[in-house]
């Protein structure tokens, strides 16, 4: 820990960790919101599309 650049390296790793964790959290929250929106749209339409069927 006598390296003069230790503070810079540690700060870089900490910032990278915070950014990546934020992106993971943002993606997870957006996925939940999109699933809710899709469920609401499906409930409003009153019908469901077949998973393997042809799409118009």
TrEMBL record:
Q: Cross-referenced InterPro entries, in alphabetical order? A: Haem_export_protD_CcmD
Q: What is the originating organism of this protein?
A: Methylopila capsulata
NCBIfam families attached here? cytochro_ccmD
Q: Which GO terms describe its cellular component?
A: plasma membrane
- Localized where? Cell inner membrane
Q: Which family does the record claim for this protein?
A: Belongs to the CcmD/CycX/HelD family.
Please give the start and end residues of each transmembrane region. 6-29
Major subcellular site: membrane
The Gene Ontology biological process terms listed for this entry are:
cytochrome complex assembly; heme transport
Protein name as catalogued: Heme exporter protein D
User: Among its keywords, does the record have Transmembrane?
Assistant: yes
Output the Pfam families linked to this UniProt entry: CcmD
Record's bilayer topology term: Single-pass membrane protein
């Amino acid at each position: 820990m006598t390296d003069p650049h230790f503070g810079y390296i540690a700060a870089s790793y900490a910032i990278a960790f915070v950014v990546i964790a934020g992106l993971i959290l943002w993606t997870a929250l957006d996925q939940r919101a999109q699933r809710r929106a899709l469920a609401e749209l499906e409930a409003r339409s009153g019908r469901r599309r077949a998973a393997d069927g042809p799409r118009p």
